[in-house]
């Protein structure tokens, strides 16, 4: 399913097709038939054509995954020959046709031999001709379907370009309330206008049209995961860049099945597929806040569940809430953060009274999807269970608002550490005395035991404590990119800065305040990451590591390495360039 491509390099073969240079790429897991079809497609012939390869010396090259690698200057010469309509193919579907024809011929031969009629060969030829015609018709229909999908994608891209090109000046006098409280009558919400055209950005983002499923299963093939991929999926180092959207959908399905969530909530597997499809359709094509980010966050949560053995301290219901919240946590994100929503007085900010407008909207879209019976993965749970699930998912998605970071972390630390009165002079004097006495190595074991007792202050059976832990866990996963290897994390920084720069450009155009860390004229990649890693990521992950020590080596240490790397990058960027030889000569001459 492409799992090897995320771990092993692909093989590249250069071809010469009637003087035209072509290139194909495949992995060692591809079969001979797959390579044959790939070359046939490049040569513009049917998959049933006979294909042969010759090297520069004229020797035939075997058509299989282990064929020798060539270079662009010495491509393999491709020779193809289309089969005649009546020729029986010896490969692929032709084998099936040959068997069918043989059986039909045998039956006709037995029947007609009794009657003295010998028209078997004539009938056999007629059937072969008809089968060939049907085969060509199916091939043409397949090509039409491909072209239709391509046209749909092109139309969607054009629409996105048109919407992004529009200027976003809102006429707030044309906004209407969805309900009339006095009369009790419900009005159809009017769209927001830019001039005389509808502004799709400010128009209602959660209408029924967006929530309905645009395609039904099976719209993507069933993939079989190798054991290597299954184990790799549990690691924080998982590379999310090599997976196609359909592959990510299959990986999400595997996570829910493997954690026992399908059995826990009695989820219909088809409903689960439809749920993920609908979620995917309701993530926008933003540079950063897109479906791949959703998959990235969910995979990190899946990895932390296995890394910390969370099933030992949480129920399956809690694990399902964590995973579902990750899947839905940025649904329909417009690519502009809460600060912009509030300053620009968008419809979302007005609707949610400037209180976490985006996170509230993500929750609303999530439960709009779940309100569709075809996508409701919690349809088979009782009312009390669904009430707990809804409250838990809402709590976790709202916790991803970075404006609440300090509040959530302070609350979590209180669950781990003993309270200390910083305003009480006696407490301060006692604290200083304890610090001095703690330097006595004879008390080493006593002090470590006291530390462990403080950590044990966290009550695993206390709902308030567990809710605090779950909020911190989803926050860790939401901003965990720098935990991953550099080749995985650094492209995410570029995506985030692109989204930031798009917002700051728009804020400048509309005369709104611009955050310095979003201004393309002020921020660089190192300056954007150093402070965030030092003052947000490392302290947060270190706090969680007090409960799960394994996190220190697997997550905190990579963060320290990333911090040092960006600091080195910043230092190199700040160093003045060495003077050129011409400047040195000029200086000597002037003296």
Order of helices and strands: EEHEEEHHEEHHHHHHHHHHHHHHHHHHH
Number of helices: 22
Contiguous low-pLDDT stretches (5 residues minimum) are 1-7, 86-90, 167-210, 584-591
Strand order of the largest sheet: 2-1-5-3-4
Overview of the structural elements:
- By secondary structure, the protein is mainly alpha-helical.
- Helices cover 55% and strands 5% of the residues.
- It has 22 helices and 7 strands.
- The radius of gyration is 31 Å and the shape is globular.
Question: Keywords for this structure?
Answer:
591 residues, mainly alpha, two-stranded antiparallel sheet, 22 helices, 7 strands, 55% helix
How are the secondary structure elements laid out?
Elements: E1 11-17, E2 20-26, H1 32-43, E3 50-54, E4 60-61, E5 76-81, H2 93-115, H3 120-165, E6 193-194, E7 197-198, H4 208-211, H5 227-232, H6 245-258, H7 261-264, H8 269-281, H9 291-307, H10 316-328, H11 338-343, H12 347-351, H13 357-370, H14 383-398, H15 405-416, H16 425-437, H17 444-455, H18 463-478, H19 486-510, H20 525-545, H21 550-574, H22 581-590
Parallel strand pairs: 1-5
Antiparallel strand pairs: 1-2, 3-4, 3-5, 6-7
Helix pairs in contact: 2-3, 6-8, 6-9, 9-10, 9-18, 10-14, 13-14, 14-18, 15-18, 18-20, 20-21
